[in-house]
């Protein structure tokens, strides 16, 4: 090769090295839209306060304002309702904090007022901060009565953490609502039904084992030595006898039914699983009946004294959640009549002999009578599925009928993760309303964001 050619090649390589890695050809980020979570919501019969949520597509780097206009019909601000934050001249100014992607405000009904249920408030996003644009759902109607939604789209608020998203998200189709509960916020769930059953937190990988002792004061760290490598889940560890039945059978909880005879209720060693900051400390617990409710005795493994907490049965919920570090009943899953499915991480099974912490898992509210069916698009398309199809739909009460079947994981052969487009689901809630449900995306390879899956649902048949 000639000297001149070598000089030309060297010059070309030198110039190439000076070109920035990011060029004008890189695609710009899409608009960061601001919109209401749903187009319609309503107060239930016993509800006095309702949260209205406003979501962004992605986080903002600096605190940003969103202005919302109120248009009441049949009600007057300050007389029949108020908001938090307070409105001025029927206008609310909300702040989206830095490094977040959501904001909200609360509407509170005044006490001792008489309404006929036809009253409404129309909310409209009027202005947004720099770098934001108003999205498609710029209006939301709040009714002062229960609604039966005709359908909507929701982005589930799983929170940070990707495949280990921080929240469990409960969805109620008929009210267009979702409730996000921090997985790390509770350790034990106390059944509100007629049986005396207690569950452990499957969403954190909790595990529990009974001892032969019935006195917490006699339990020391020595009692956990043999459990150090057996009371742990994940990476092929753990067995099904240290967790609750993964299909939700309450006769097969790891903590046996609480006996009316105190002497029959042993001490358990509880590994509460992992929090967002690592492994939680272990506890020794003992649960007794107290009248129609429960008493839980608990302490850290090395503590020589223990605390007690009484838990009243609440028939409005499947389970009342208890936080042992806080020593109290905490906000948990919504009322059992107010949710249909829950999305999030939970303990399921890798094989028939190995438990597994399963991300992006969906369960139905089978304890409250919700049923579901999986429909393959080779038989009926989502768009074509109508009320005439309902009678032949094979509804099941299996809590895991949706499970992880709605998505694929990234495979070792390069198979990308994504929503399965060859199927959708039909949900029949406890009131007989039938909705068809499809998952839009859940990870970056199918246009979504891990921890914030998008769903769409439509009313097919109204309950009688």
From TrEMBL:
Q: Write down the Pfam families for this protein, in alphabetical order.
A: HmuY
Which Gene3D superfamilies does the UniProt record give?
A: 2.60.40.2030
Coiled-coil regions listed in the entry: none
Q: Which InterPro entries match?
A: CalX-like_sf (IPR038081), HmuY (IPR025921)
Q: Signal peptide: which range, if any?
A: 1-23
Is Signal one of the keywords UniProt gives this record?
A: yes
Q: Which UniProt keywords apply?
A: Signal
What is the protein's given name? HmuY protein
User: Which organism does this sequence originate in?
Assistant: Siphonobacter curvatus
